[in-house]
Amino acid sequence: MCFKSICAFSSMKRIEAIIQEDKLGLVVDELRASGVIGITTMQAQGIGAGDRPMLGGSRGTAKFMAPFNKLASVIIITDDQKVDSIVKTIMDTAHTGNAGDGKIFVTNVEDAFDIATKQGGKHII
Q1: CA torsion, points 41, 42, 45, 49, in degrees to nearest 10?
Q2: How far, in Å, CA of 76 to CA of 34, rounded?
Q3: In a domain, 63, yes or no
Q4: Is residue 76 part of a domain?
Q5: Going residue by residue through the chain (125 aa), what tens digit of pLDDT does each one get?
Q6: Most buried of 49, 57, 83, 114, CB within 10 angstroms?
């Protein structure tokens, strides 16, 4: 097994992109086409610079602002060398030029483990 003391320099990154929900399918398709294999997605809600949608009331007469925007979170664990390419793919695909397009965060991953094989280290990603 590979533990933090051994694998501290494993050069893995976590990329998390918070994007508009309606861009999720396109982003995943482009990531897969570019060779990304492991992708985790989650539905999310958030408030930021983007406009929130107006929703109709129960009888369709009143309108009110949605409390949150519908978003999607895309998470990828990858080698350092692939980060720029993945970030560019997400930016190019999710971009509309409007406030609320989303954010991308890149953080270090100290180690990773595969539960099925009980192995750890960079090679499992």
Answers
A1: -20
A2: 13
A3: no
A4: yes
A5: 455 544 545 589 999 999 999 999 999 999 999 999 999 999 998 887 767 666 666 676 777 676 788 999 999 999 999 999 999 999 999 999 988 899 999 999 999 999 999 999 888 88
A6: 83
Q: CATH number of the domain that 9 lies in?
A: 3.30.70.120
Global confidence as pTM = 0.81
Backbone angles phi, psi at 21, to 5 degrees: -55, -35
Number of domains in the chain: 1
**Could you tell me if residue 90 is inside a domain?**
yes
Is the residue at 62 inside a domain?
no
Chain-centre distance of CA 20, in angstroms? 11
Question: What separation in angstroms does the CA of 102 have from each of 8, 11, 21, 45, 50?
Answer: 30, 25, 10, 12, 9
Cα–Cα distance for residue pair 82/63, rounded to 1 Å: 45
Q: Can you give the pLDDT at residue 122? A: 85
- Nearest in space to 9 (alpha carbons), one of 123, 101, 122: 122
User: Residue 63: what pLDDT?
Assistant: 76
